[in-house]
């Protein structure tokens, strides 16, 4: 059984008091906050707000359930090592979190990878011109297209951890958390923003509410 399948089974096994969707969302929110606050040196008001949010979410679960969530976190890291893919998007769909009630579905990774590979020549040309790959994903979902592009870069010899910079945006907080987790653990230099792209396209030159912005360890310098 793959590590991803083990996570799916844990979610199904501990569901009942909470739906698979709620368990998955709570896990992703706490996982993202843990990464973000771990690489924030100054414990300012936003850091404290996130800490309190983490505590309030975790307080919903008993000791055994909390240990299961911790196990899921460890298994996720191993799953990403097994296969560079949209692990969280697949877990979301296979655990029963994604359904007609939530109205949220994620693109199968093989489709994202196909689209990225069709742009391989563009990636090569951009890298030859600028020495960097810059992406702005306005509706990022779980980050599948970012992961697929990073995979293509890796396959053609571009160090995506040092030579790729991304700005990701989504209206839904769950999508923000999922993308942030995945690109953080892949070592990608990225900023993930919770905003409506059609109304408020992110511009790094402007001032924004930092509560709606998550910066990966690769972006903050916590990962060199």
What can you see in these coordinates?
The structure is a single chain. This protein is of the alpha/beta class and about 220 residues long. The chain has eleven helices and four strands, in the order αααααααβααβαββα. Helix 1 packs antiparallel against helix 4 and helix 2 packs across helix 10. The protein is globular and about 55 Å long. The mean pLDDT is about 90.
Mean pLDDT: 92
Unreliable runs: none
Range of helix content: 55-70%
Beta-strand segment tally? 4
Topology:
Blueprint: H1 3-14, H2 20-38, H3 45-58, H4 63-82, H5 87-94, H6 109-118, H7 120-130, E1 133-137, H8 144-155, H9 160-163, E2 164-170, H10 173-185, E3 189-194, E4 213-215, H11 217-220
Parallel strand pairs: 1-2, 2-3
Antiparallel strand pairs: 3-4
Concise synopsis of the structure shown:
This protein is of the alpha/beta class. 57% of the residues lie in helices and 9% in strands. It has helices at residues 3-14, 20-38, 45-58, 63-82, 87-94, 109-118, 120-130, 144-155, 160-163, 173-185, 217-220, and strands at residues 133-137, 164-170, 189-194, 213-215.
Key structural traits:
4-stranded mixed β-sheet; single chain; 57% helix; 11 helices; 224 residues; alpha/beta
């Amino acid at each position: 059984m793959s590590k991803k399948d083990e996570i799916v089974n844990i979610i199904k096994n501990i569901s009942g008091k909470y739906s698979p969707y709620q368990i998955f969302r709570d896990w992703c929110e706490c996982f993202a906050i843990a990464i973000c606050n771990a690489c924030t040196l100054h414990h300012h008001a936003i850091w404290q707000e996130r800490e309190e949010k983490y505590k309030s979410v975790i307080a919903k679960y008993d000791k055994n359930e909390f240990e299961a969530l911790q196990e899921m976190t460890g298994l996720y890291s191993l799953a990403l090592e097994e296969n560079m893919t949209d692990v969280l998007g697949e877990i979301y769909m296979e655990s029963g979190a994604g359904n007609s009630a939530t109205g949220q579905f994620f693109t199968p990774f093989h489709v994202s990878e196909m689209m990225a590979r069709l742009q391989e020549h563009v990636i090569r040309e951009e890298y030859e011109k600028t020495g960097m790959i810059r992406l702005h994903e306005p509706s990022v979902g779980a980050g599948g297209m970012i992961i697929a592009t990073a995979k293509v870069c890796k396959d053609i010899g571009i160090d995506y951890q040092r030579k790729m910079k991304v700005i990701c945006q989504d209206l839904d907080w769950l999508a923000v958390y999922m993308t942030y987790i995945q690109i953080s653990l892949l070592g990608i230099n990225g900023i993930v923003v919770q905003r409506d792209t059609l109304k408020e396209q992110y511009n790094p030159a402007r001032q924004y509410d930092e509560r709606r912005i998550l910066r990966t360890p690769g972006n903050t310098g916590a990962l060199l």
